[in-house]
Records
---
Amino acid sequence: MAKARASVLLFATLLGFWLLLNGSLATDVLVIGVIAALVITLLFRDSLAVVSEFRATPHALITAPSYVFYFLKELVRSNLRLASIVLSPALPLRPGIVKVRTRLKSRMGRLLLANSITLTPGTLTVELDGEWLYVHWVTVESEDVDAATADIVNGFERYLEVMYG
């Protein structure tokens, strides 16, 4: 039953995107969209976890835009921090790889966390191994797992946990 629900959700999402991109409800656009969404759903129903692992609850739907705004805030903050490091005559770098832990259980939640960290300037996820992420950090502020987790992971994780678990 869960697979059928995930497939229906995937089909509806793909069809919705198709219709948004085309901006038309003409019969030919609708038919092509239905066929394309059906084929993709049948071929990739187990591998498009971004849709199928998403918890489609009201709380998760409200949290998704909040996550995007949080990510954008962190993106700007990290860019400013990295720019100040680069522009500083002392160039206060302290690069290193730190080990951090995630509470996320879903594969997609962990993948989105790793990508969010990587897309934020100054950090790069180099390995994801179960609950552990190994992150290259331009300015290592703490080598302690709990402190590094609090600095790097916790902000993203509180949103992703609601959306993906």
---
Amino acid sequence: MTPARRALLATPLALLGAQLPPWLRQAHAGAQVEEPLADAVRTALAASVADAAPPKPRFDKVDERLAYLRWLGATSQRLKRRMAEHHTRVEFLAAVWYESRRAGLETPLVLGLIQAESGFRKYAISRAGARGYMQVMPFWARLIGDGDARRLFHLQTNLRFGCVILRHYLDRERGDLFMALGRYNGSRGRAEYPNLVFGARRAWDIPPG
């Protein structure tokens, strides 16, 4: 690790927005559009992101646990060139697996979205101000979180918000993933972004066994 990068990791998150260099700052993301939320929807979304307990995969059967471990090993190998440090990579994948399933989403889809949005960069910031792995817009912290947008750089917080938001958009679009992905990216109705995510998803679709 270079001295510049080591210094950056020690920088308080409050200052990151102004100091991130291009290799961290650039992100492909668009921007989720702030829309009015019914009180019931806002309450439900807030409840969905409120539990900050760390992900703890639980399995009823040994075969399920073995399948998870095989997936973790195979996916970790594929991610290695993008995320070199082993512990960071395993922690990230465990959180993605947990949060995607918690939200009722396919894990390869979420990994494809992360690849398209941030290129697996934890501190990526788009030109519109979207943050982190899943490029969550800061207004979500105000609408359904505790108001602290800095926490969107936290691994589990970012994945929790991102998966809950995508699930919300998927419900709004009545299961139409193409339209939900467009809404997530702020490009609803256009094919470029959904096609990009669908293409990226194929790389993370690990066959069972």
---
Amino acid sequence: MLEDVVKRYYEEAGYNCSETIIHAGNEYYHLGLHEEDMKMLAGFGSGMYSGGTCGTLIGSVAVLSKLLIRTKAHDQLDELRPVISAMYRNFREAAGAVDCAKVRPAHYQKEIRCLNTCLIAARVLEETVTADSGLLDQGFR
């Protein structure tokens, strides 16, 4: 399960929420990203360190984009939009909000920090990928 991989990256490797999702997604879905590539998500933790959109949601959208896009978003909007919209909607439902400033108070625990939010994002991401058989047909996981 993706949740197991997420837990390992968050607890053992010490990545922030957004980094955790991209690293776990890279491993679990065999995305082929290099360590240098994944550094691009470092600044999205804690809602871009401003309480904005949750870093786990941003990381999840990055994973979905890598799974879906062959050239660029504008070439595949009919495929991309419903999947990203579903991820956003389902994350909001599961976490209670999409902004870190609202998600964090509901799920943060001092002992485990944002692990609960990372696990919510992992569940929603995996459900989103599973629900869209086109993603699975592309040879991922």
---
Amino acid sequence: MQVLRELVEAYQAFEAYALPHIKKQGLTPPQFDVIATLGNTEGMTFKALGQRTLIYKTTLTSVVDRLQERGLVERVPAETDRRSIIARLTPAGHALFREIFPAHSEHLRIRLERLTDREMTEAIRVLRRLRSAFED
């Protein structure tokens, strides 16, 4: 159980550092996640967006609703399957992405650069192995 405790505490420390920076941008963490995921894309289906962000479908709908109300995201029919809806950033959403994503990446980099390249590689390897222990 110690490994799970360390994992949870590491995630809590990450959130304590990252969340205030996200909130300073006027976004909730799920809103930031959607904008960051849609940035540099032509948009994606709600199913793909949910898989990439790990936001539950019902929550994702309300997050996109709020971003749409703010003029940052739009819904458009998929060209290949009109039953599917694509969520994509509006020009204002792309502008916000270009403003906040590099700043947030830099905010995280400041702390992550405390790890050596070797430590980062090892952390990735161990976390992938831990994830695989819970899959299937």
